[in-house]
Design brief:
6-stranded parallel beta sheet, globular
Amino acid sequence: MSMLYLDVDTQLDFVFPAGALYVPGAELILPRVAARNREAIAAGHLLVATVDAHTENDPEFAHWPHHCVAGTLGQRKPAQTLIEGLRPFHKQTTDIFSNPAFAALLDAEKISAALVYGVVTEICVLHAVRGLQQRGIHVSLDSQAVKELNPAARDLFFAELRDRGGAIL
């Protein structure tokens, strides 16, 4: 297997208006995220979902409000994005590469290309893309399946992704 589909942090606290760190409009990308997840499994690609899993007193809460506390409703993924074969990887920071098992999986599966989507575009999606590109993995980003908080920061990230050889679909 050489292709990764990476569903970044599409969790209730981020994608629904009642969520602790709601990204305005994020609920609108969920049908596209669900379609990409189904596409990955149907094509036999590796499908990974990053999942924030914070403790009650997580150090990240010095910078962000409480969100995605392990075991809470807000930490869950929307039902429409769940599919058999999806492999969740927990993280306590904005960077999935803080979980060494994720990098080990990429190596074990010989991942050479990735399609990335989710939230927040200029935070967790950005860190995932940078980490993938630093490992020599070609990255494509589905612009219809991401949502940002800051459009200017998103645009800077998109330019960076392209400058480093990535594609925006």
